[in-house]
Specification:
The protein is an alpha+beta fold. The protein is built from 7 helices and 7 strands, in the order βααβααβββαβαβα. It has one domain: 3-Layer(aba) Sandwich (Aminopeptidase), CATH 3.40.630.30.
Amino acid sequence: DGEDGFAAGQPRYVFQVPLAGRSLEEVRTGLNQQWRRNIKKAEKAGVKVDEGGYEDLPVFYELYRETAERDRFAPRPFGYFQRMWTALRAEDPDRMRLYLAQHEGETLAAATMLTVGNHVWYSYGASTARKREVQPGNAIQWRMMSDAHERGAAVYDLRGITDTLAEDNHLLGLLRFKVGTGGRAAEYVGEWDYPINKLLHRAFTLYMARR
């Protein structure tokens, strides 16, 4: 989702899946029929989702550049992600995680996940146009949601969404993808520099300083 990631400001509308007080099965039941079907397709096809490390950032970045070209946004430089990884994980190894979805030895999708307290964010996502039929995007998101739930997160945040449903909006497919999680839209006003939560503020101040 490229620029759906952490940009300089806070998007006005975000999409969140509540996890607090819900079993993982309840979260899965809350997904729409297409999502549940796609997760099963990925499992049946043998898609494997694993956590990656710093050494896997080049693989992520290759997919990210392909995504940027396809979705028409300017990609951030590779060094940005290296600094992001180093800065955030220096404060807490769980602060940032990288996930890779692979099928028959080929990495088809990758995504980064950020955690502050009991709030988990999907920050940057990337994928190839190849083998979309094995549904790596759904597989990677479900693994991230499941891990967030296992770690006791209250919210899984899919970040920004468009505020229009116009058919000519090229992000409409992304909106539908997020809405399929059965979560809810939330509206924010203002930038990240409003310290709603001191821990969150410190983490992102550190992050923004190293961009």
